Amino acid sequence: MSTVREMGTTLMRTAYSVVLREQMDCTTALFDPGGQLIAQADHVPSHQGTLSFAARWVAGNFEMKPGDIVILNHPYRGGTHHPDIMIFRAIFFEGRQVALAGALGHQIDVGGRSPGSVATDARDVFEEGLIIPPLKLYREGRLVEEVLQMIQANIRVPEETMGDIRAEIAATSVGEQRYVELCEKYGAARLARIVADLLDHSEAMMRRDLARYPNGTYRATGFMDGDGVSDDMVRIEVAVTLEDGAVTIDFAGSSPQLKGPFNCSLSSVQAACYCAVRYMVDPAILQNEGCYRPVEILLPERSVVSPERPAPLSGRFHTLERIATTIVQAFNGARGSEAVANGHGHLTSFSTSGRKPGSGGTFVLFEYHGGGWGGTSRCDGLDATFGLMANCYDNPVEAIEMSYPLLVETYAFIPDSGGAGKHRGGLGLCKRIKYLEGSGAFTNRSDATKFGAAGVLGGLDGRPARHALKRADGRLEALPSKVTNLGIGAGDVMILETAGGGGYGSPLDRDPRHVLADLANGKITEAASRETYGVVFHGSDLSLDEAATERRRTYLRTRSAGG
Q1: Could you tell me if 410 and 518 lie in one domain?
Q2: Which in 262, 462, 542, 562 has the greatest CB count within 10 A?
Q3: pLDDT tens digits along 434-454
Q4: Distance (Å, rounded) from C-alpha 229 to C-alpha 122?
Q5: Residues 544 and 483 both lie in one domain
Q6: Does residue 319 belong to any structural domain of this protein?
Q7: Nearest alpha-carbon partner for 30 in 63, 59, 55
Q8: Which secondary structure element, helix H or strand E, spans residue 358, and what is its range?
Q9: Is residue 270 part of a domain?
């Protein structure tokens, strides 16, 4: 774990783009020679299973030699979607391959019809950007320069992307160095036995924790706004069967393969399933391939979760987020009073582009934000945090304004956006960004505008997401969650409001002191404190009126019951 964390730090500190350098949309990992995950850095949960899938593909299709490095992003040959470029370095000790070091970084642009490679209406993988099949970037320590030249010729911001690829290569170099040191310390054969035991131990702990749930089949259904081509809702149907420490996840009934780019690659479906199940067990279990062994996944052919090449899938993160959220919702059937409300289950992401002031050249910003998590039996949901499948940071305002001709006007929580409950859902985030100079394009690739995150055990639903463009002349254009390459110019403001999480338990059971704290912190309005939570305060000093609160809550309970 120390090694993969050092690899991750190396990647972020040497990366060029804000996506990697500031938002941490990257992951580093170590694998055995067969591609089994040994350890993975604590970066992006959606890369659990995805890097492993690609590592197994590389291990099974390449004869690796000392100094060999493989690069790929092919979504149907081990990759996830086009922007996720992966690097794998073979690690040798005393003439034998002992491990594989891997790094994944979301590149800010890899070509395609939309700046940022985020077209929401692409009809096949060829519209989505440059496809890099698994290729040897280094052969026995010698760079194959033509591979980088080919990549550089097909992207809008080559300096940033090429710098990020070099950062990934540097990270795998650290992994190689540290793993060789372990081999020198313990011996390669003994280290291999230790690794095998670690994988078996994680599997045993996973099965132990899962066996605590009652056997049975538990179902849930999740929806997405549409696929970018049609406004028809996308259906994610899951049946989770628990049996003596094993889990089977069946997606029968999910939407057929989509026309738009929100199909989910196999590696990403696996990641969503593995991650959701991991949320149901002890978080201290060491993350490795053993964690995946108790999980079986059943996928209907030619469906949103099992698309057939060349179906588009660059927007697959929104789908895998909904998959994970729906699996957790299904587990509620086995959790009783420990059920959790739904989180926002989406990603509010956008790209904007144009010409750099003065020096010329192209700029591309791709950015994304989280929303509210669901309330639980123990606490309120997290506010404005990435969902179950991401662990990224928001870009610092200063980083955006220093790097781009943009001004962040607003960056704030949205009051009352979290579903009310005994434990409130987390709040969504409002961000307003002004485009300062010239003209360019804006693409919105988001979700969760049609459905609020579901509350549980009497908790209310969270507020859905909203998006708009405020034009320089004052006109306000409400936007759907998916739209590609809108024209944008100086003075226009991009408005992005993420969804809140669902609430847990009745709002009338919430501790009035917590209602007061939320009101004082601007997380709820005074109207919500009285009308939804039934809490009454004395005058302007906001001191609790206990008698009036009791009367008000009795009235609201009676009204709710139809009395």
Answers
A1: no
A2: 462
A3: 999 999 999 999 999 999 999
A4: 8
A5: no
A6: no
A7: 55
A8: none
A9: no
- For the record, the structure tokens of 160 come out as 């940033």
Size of the chain, expressed as the number of residues it contains? 563
Specify the DSSP element, H or E, that contains 258: none
| 240 in a structural domain | no
Q: Are residues 497 and 394 in the same domain?
A: yes
Specify if 211 maps to a domain: no
Is residue 124 within 8 Å of 188, Cβ to Cβ?
no
| Tens of pLDDT, residues 266-292 | 999 999 999 999 999 999 999 999 999
How much is the pLDDT for 347?
86
Find how far residue 86's CA is from the centre of its chain.
17
Which amino acid is located at 177 in the chain?
Q
CB count, 10 Å around CB of 377? 16
Domain's final residue, options 204, 230, 256: 204
State which residues form the domain around 528: 508-560
Chain position carrying tokens 């008000």: 552
Q: 550: how many CB neighbours lie within 10 A of its CB?
A: 13
Round to whole Å and give the CA distance between 277 and 294: 10
**Is the omega angle on the peptide bond into residue 310 within 30 degrees of 0, that is, cis?**
yes
Name the DSSP letter for residue 337: G
Q: Tell me the three state secondary structure of residue 249.
A: strand
Q: Is 251 helix (H, G, I), strand (E, B) or coil?
A: coil
* Secondary element (H or E) of residue 326: helix 316-335
402: left (phi over 0), alpha (psi -120 to 50) or beta: alpha
- Looking up tokens 């580093």 gives 28
**39 and 137 housed in the same domain:** yes
Instruction: Find, among 352, 391, 203, the residue nearest to 281 by Cα.
Output: 203
pLDDT at 563: 57
**CB neighbour list of residue 475: distance below 8 Å, 6 or more residues apart:** none
Residues 97 and 22 grouped into a single domain: yes
Total domains in the chain come to 3
pTM (two decimals):
0.95
pLDDT along the chain (563 residues), means of 10: 96 95 93 95 81 92 96 92 96 98 95 93 95 97 96 94 97 98 98 97 98 98 96 96 98 98 94 95 94 97 96 94 97 96 93 87 92 97 93 90 95 98 98 96 96 97 98 96 96 97 98 95 95 89 89 93 71
Do residues 151 and 133 lie in contact, with contact meaning Cβ atoms separated by under 8 Å? no
